[in-house]
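Incident log, entry 3
Record: 3'-5' exonuclease domain-containing protein (304 residues)
Problem: checksum mismatch between cached and fresh output.
Input:
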Amino acid sequence: MASNNQDPCYDLVDQAADIKPALAKLREHGVPGSPSLAVDCEGETLSRKGVLSIVSVATESHTYLFDVKKLGAKVFDEGLKELLEDPGREKLMFDCRADSDCLWHLCKVRLTNVVDLQLMQMIYQETHPILLATGSASRAQLVKNFQPKRHNFLFCLEQYVKDDQLIKAKAEGKPKMEQAGVWLQRPLDGQLLSYAAADVQGFFPLYRALKPGIGGSSGAARLQVASQRFLDYYRSLAVRTYDKFEKNCFLPWRLLPPYAHATYAEEVTCFGCKRRFPREDFLPFHVKRGNPNCPVCRKMYAQK
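Fresh output:
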């Protein structure tokens, strides 16, 4: 099913006969110098314990929404798994953690070679602080060791892309997204499909807007390392907690390295997020007491 001309254009793939033709289009060469694919997932409680409904995959010229709930494993067996796992195809995503966790634990699809645009925006923001209405940078951004909050995709569309059609599709779909079970209903609501299409279609212009400001090859190398960490952030956990220490608005501690090959000693386990960091990252009396928390988890403890 194709969308109408007034919404972000897409094709809904919900028939088995349409899977291979759609994948063939997605395998065609993209724009030179740009990632070849944009990928996003939608579902109910998107994670290993949830239900995957839609996998959206786009090039600069084609957008396909694969109805995984209807097609089942066949959509992956016919080639979508191979496409998503292809290490030779760079894929744009935005906060890939839940998508990666869901695809691996529910579908045995291991995403590779992802450029995470949420992390890209955070690197960009290091040298291009977001201005307040007064025209000055947020005071918090100027504080040493400030741990930034992650911005959502709609914010990034409004701040950097300024595409009215994509912003409208995201804004209109948001109230429906907040309703439980909407991605499990069939037929799928047209506003939800436009919302899903706007995500992947907006990834390409956002990438182009941010790329000049991330510090060239050194910034790209940092982004590559951090994106891989984001892919594994939930996916690699033996058990998930789904609590505020695992899921919150802050960039996880030490996830974005100061340079690509930076390492750190894993000496102490954080009581909150269960990740290991150098002893110097913790307050000595917390370590002695047996409940050490990294700087981000200390923030979360402070938020009652």
